[in-house]
């Protein structure tokens, strides 16, 4: 995700060996261009030689992150057993002067209950290119638009139908073109009737307005018609 105030950015997906498992987001600022590389070493299929070629670009500062699916003493516990094939990516990353940002030995992955005695490891890693980047900060707050669910089974059917009939009767007196009438009916009649009579439930809304959330939905009842979701009002 890129903030909409960032103007100069682009996304490039890898081709060849790393297609589908390596994607690069390039963001240009007044200082320099930052290349954020996201990788997923699915079934140990990531080609690290090709990745190394990408990291050799001297015109960009590189940030590499993702799921390595590899264990190594560089980032795992001191007594951890390195995964077969882990030495090659370590060599490639070292040659490109990539600096590990994870705290070595801190497990960030567990299979099963994190508090139980289950296997833990550090496979999700972040690296940066030498001294060009002093800090990496990621804002994980995602602003979502208002998301509504229309509760059709609570709609007063007769009032809904009267509204539609009244607006359609007025339109037939104003238009000769059937096509023009169809377009206006779709835009005004159903939209207006839906807003007027169909209760909605707020599923999510922007963070700053959550404290003022309200619901127009009556007490829950067994649904008698399919529910639909839409974004916006």
From TrEMBL:
Q: Name one Pfam family in it.
A: Exo_endo_phos_2
Query: Where does the Endonuclease/exonuclease/phosphatase domain start and stop, copy by copy?
Result: 35-135
- Which superkingdom does the taxonomy of this entry point to? Eukaryota
- The protein's organism comes out as Massarina eburnea CBS 473.64
Location of region: Disordered: 204-233
Entry GO MF terms: catalytic activity
Upper classification of the organism = Eukaryota, Fungi, Dikarya, Ascomycota, Pezizomycotina
Specify residue ranges for compositional bias: Low complexity: 224-233
This chain's protein is named Endonuclease/exonuclease/phosphatase domain-containing protein
């Amino acid at each position: 995700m890129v903030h909409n105030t960032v103007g100069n950015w682009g996304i490039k997906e890898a081709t060849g060996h790393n297609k589908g498992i390596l994607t690069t987001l390039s963001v240009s600022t007044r200082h320099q261009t930052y290349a954020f590389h996201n990788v997923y070493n699915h079934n140990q299929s990531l080609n690290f030689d090709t990745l190394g070629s990408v990291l050799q670009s001297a015109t960009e500062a590189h940030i590499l992150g993702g799921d390595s699916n590899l264990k190594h003493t560089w980032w795992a516990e001191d007594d951890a057993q390195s995964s077969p094939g882990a030495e090659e990516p370590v060599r490639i990353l070292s040659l490109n002067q990539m600096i590990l940002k994870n705290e070595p030995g801190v497990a960030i992955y567990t299979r099963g209950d994190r508090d139980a005695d289950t296997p833990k490891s550090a496979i999700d890693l972040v690296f940066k290119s030498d001294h060009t980047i002093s800090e990496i900060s990621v804002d994980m707050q995602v602003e979502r638009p208002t998301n509504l669910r229309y509760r059709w089974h609570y709609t007063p059917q007769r009032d809904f139908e009267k509204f539609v009939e009244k607006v359609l009767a007025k339109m037939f007196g104003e238009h000769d073109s059937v096509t023009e009438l169809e377009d206006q009916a779709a835009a005004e009649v159903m939209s207006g009737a839906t807003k007027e009579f169909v209760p909605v439930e707020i599923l999510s809304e922007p963070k700053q307005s959550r404290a003022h959330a309200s619901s127009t939905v009556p007490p829950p009842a067994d649904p008698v018609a399919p529910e639909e979701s839409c974004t916006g009002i």
